[in-house]
């Protein structure tokens, strides 16, 4: 029972994390102008501060939820597809952790710059440089959140834990993430639901092992009750 509860919590976290991450990306796309540059983004953030804050909070929440969900997915592939599933889960978890740095470095920075009222030249200069740590964080973020779901769902498909369309949806999610515009954000949200959301649903469902354990527990309890009744005076 405790294993089922753990899986259900992980499944719920994975599905909620996927929705939160894709929703944050969609809100970001809606706020940012089509011809985006540092100064135009800062101006858009100033005009839509509430939506930008919501996107940042969703991104932060998704990091924790995806981390918890990724840790639970390996339970679905104990043998066949286990290696690929674990690699995908580890990448997804690493990307989730790195996304915290990305959120602080992107959402929080633009919120600060927009509230300071800097001119276009000052904003461009502030966003122009990036140190080695920032480059590593962004690289891990991109690798984990784009490659991780694909490898994870491919491993689970190899384990026959998910339908064939789940890894296909994960690939669509990756492609949508590399295309600009709100329409791609909507596609990404739907693909996140169909890929990581579907994995979350599978995680939360009782498995054959749960039913076998429940039957063994029932049989043991019944035997103990019968033995106690026999020994009673």
Short key terms for the protein model shown above:
mainly alpha
Describe it for me?
41% of the residues are buried. 84% of the residues lie in helices and 0% in strands. It has 233 residues and is mainly α. The chain contains 9 helices and no strands. α1 runs antiparallel to α3, α2 (38-47) packs across α4 and α7 runs antiparallel to α8. The radius of gyration is 22 Å and the shape is elongated. The model is unreliable at 210-222 and 224-229 (pLDDT under 50). The chain has one domain (2-205).
Topology, element by element:
Blueprint: H1 2-31, H2 38-47, H3 49-73, H4 82-116, H5 120-128, H6 132-158, H7 165-177, H8 182-204, H9 208-231
Helix pairs in contact: 1-3, 1-8, 2-4, 2-5, 3-4, 4-6, 6-7, 7-8
């Amino acid at each position: 029972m405790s294993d089922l509860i753990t899986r259900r919590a992980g499944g719920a976290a994975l599905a909620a994390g996927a929705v939160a991450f894709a929703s944050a990306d969609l809100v970001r796309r809606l706020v940012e102008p089509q011809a985006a540059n540092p100064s135009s983004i800062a101006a858009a953030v100033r005009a839509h501060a509430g939506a930008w804050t919501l996107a940042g909070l969703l991104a932060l929440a998704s990091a924790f939820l995806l981390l918890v969900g990724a840790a639970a997915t390996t339970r679905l592939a104990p043998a066949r597809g286990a290696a690929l599933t674990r690699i995908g889960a580890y990448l997804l978890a690493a990307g989730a952790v790195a996304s915290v740095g990305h959120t602080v470095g992107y959402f929080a920075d633009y919120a600060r710059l927009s509230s300071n009222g800097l001119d276009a030249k000052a904003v461009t200069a502030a966003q122009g440089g990036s140190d080695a740590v920032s480059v590593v964080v962004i690289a891990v973020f991109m690798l984990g959140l784009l490659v991780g779901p694909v490898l994870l769902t491919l491993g689970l498909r190899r384990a026959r834990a998910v339908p064939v369309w789940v890894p296909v949806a994960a690939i669509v999610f990756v492609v949508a993430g590399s295309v600009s515009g709100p329409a791609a954000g909507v596609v990404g949200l739907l693909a996140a639901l169909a890929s990581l959301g579907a994995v979350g649903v599978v995680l939360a469902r009782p498995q054959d092992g749960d039913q076998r354990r429940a039957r063994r527990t029932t049989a043991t309890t019944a035997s103990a009750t019968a033995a106690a009744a026999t020994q009673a005076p």
